[in-house]
Amino acid sequence: MTVDRERSVVFGSVAEEYDAARPDYPDQLVTDVLAYAPPGPVLEVGAGTGKATVSFAARGIDLTCVEPDPRMAARLSAKAPGVRVEIGIFEDFVPDRPFALLYAAQAWHWVDPDRRWDLAHAVLAPSGAVAVFWNQYVVTDPALRDELAAVDRRYDVTSSSLHRSREVRAEQAEHQLAGDPRYTDLEERHYERTDHYDAGRYLDLVRSISAYQMLDPGARETLLGEISALIGDGLDMTLTTDLALGRRAR
Ligand SMILES: C[S@@+](CC[C@H](N)C(=O)[O-])C[C@H]1O[C@@H](n2cnc3c(N)ncnc32)[C@H](O)[C@@H]1O
């Protein structure tokens, strides 16, 4: 399995839309992750524009963020001024101390799958925690979702999470950890809510997703026109945040 590097850094070109359109993470998740982890310095991998960072930083923790895209990092620094930001990929990050918690919001799948659990283990203190989580958002109405999925198929967009049933990445993460004796106390949690998106916000959300950003700009605009015709004034989304937790055993 490899990571599509070109695709992993397309977010910066739409940093503003990304920040406005992507949902935040539930406060309860932040509470649960910090309760699970021992006290001490915290590392966030792939912090982007700081959607999770702001909520974690508000809890008064000592937080370092790793983010490779300078445009995302600029927005992150503006939003979370007290946080240390290292520009670069996690694979190249050299820690200056052990961390009590490593978390990644919607970003762990971008880190080299053959090395990510080794790298996490290397930066964690003994008993340090790892928390990886993803927002899954699906269009609540199944008939509309099917129509939108048909548009995606016509444009060869096959990997968007918006118009198909849920893909639980946290479950995959937990399975990977379950086979690794260096991690223990594995847990999986889910946080569900619904949200109404008006048409403009929904189209921004679509624009912020890498599968659509990778399209030729002309094709993307035509696709957005088709989506717009289907959704009218807007739609309801079901948002679930899936969290996988583990602890360094040794
Ligand atoms: C989908 S965004 C998530 C951003 C933010 N955590 C959030 O929840 O909105 C994925 C982020 O991972 C970053 N990224 C991509 N490859 C990475 C890597 N190898 N190491 C660290 N971050 C990476 C991207 O630049 C991007 O900001």
Automatic annotation (TrEMBL):
Name of this protein: Methyltransferase domain-containing protein
MF terms in GO: methyltransferase activity
One GO BP annotation of this record: methylation
Any matching Pfam family: Methyltransf_25
Residue ranges constituting the Methyltransferase domain according to the UniProt record: 42-128
Annotated keywords: Methyltransferase, Transferase
